[in-house]
Amino acid sequence: MVINTNISAQTSARLLSASSTQLSKSLARLSSGSKITSPADDVAGLAVSMKFDAEIKRIGAATDNVNNAISFNQTQDGYLQKVSDALNRMSELSIMSQDVTKSSDDRALYQKEFSALGTYINDLGTKDFNGVSLFSGNALTVTTDSETGKFTMNGVSLAGTTYTAATGADVSTTTLAATALTNVEAAIKQLATDRATVGASVSSLTMYADQLGVLKDNISAANSQIKDVDVAQESTQYARYNILVQAGTAMLAQANATPQTVLHLLQ
Q: What values do phi and psi take at 141, rounded to 5?
């Protein structure tokens, strides 16, 4: 029996220290909700999780880009609907002005309304969306994923000759009204093509937005498997290490008290 070297106490202290460390880690995981509270917990898992976190952020940014582009196209179509209404009325005025029972004064009134509608269409062609021209005719490229995916939206212009020929027409005489009708009908046909172009962009961008949503969900689920703690499992581990710490503390006290039995030999 020795006094200076208490192997039992040393062993108990080492095991108690290990249990205390595990208890602290378990408590940190439960408190943070993450399995990885330090790089040492899972080196490879942390690296993968960091990449997933960055990709999820990029997907979120790409989703915002796509949704903004959808709003841009929807705004375009809202204006084009009003252009359609104006052109329909202009075509109606062109027919009315060809009525042989109408006087020149009547046609002058038709021309006044016709001209006002043309000015209205020309004004819509100058509108913008957050400082970006809606009807410049230039194609716009949208980032559609977290890497290098792109989608090009074809441009729409209300300043083309088809539209300007209609908006600048005249219905003050029957002859001019007939020409104006031809020009307006051509503009209506062009408008149908332009609205179809805008509608196709909205349809495609909506698919991209849905795809990004699904991708974000899947990557988030994979990331969760790596870094999120299973509370039920971890609480079981916490209870285990808590008991081991309490038992280790009691046993260390017993081991420290063992050398006192030497006193009985010295009495």
A: -105, 130
**Could you read off the pLDDT of 176-211 as tens digits, one per residue?**
999 999 999 999 999 999 999 999 999 999 999 999
Could you list the residue range(s) of the whole structural domain that residue 27 is in? Answer: 7-33+229-266
pLDDT at site 46: 84
Residue 54 maps to a domain: no
Are both 148 and 186 inside the same structural domain? yes
DSSP H helical ranges for the chain: 7-32, 43-97, 104-124, 161-167, 174-227, 231-257, 262-266
HSE-up of 229 (CA within 13 Å, CB side)? 22
Residue 135 in any domain: the answer is yes
**Strand 150-153 relative to strand 128-129, pairing:** unpaired
Q: Give phi and psi for 6, each to the nearest 5.
A: -105, 90
Beta bridge partners of 163: none
One domain for residues 237 and 199: no
Residues of the chain with pLDDT under 50: none
Cβ-based neighbours of 256, under 8 Å, separated by 6 or more: 6, 9
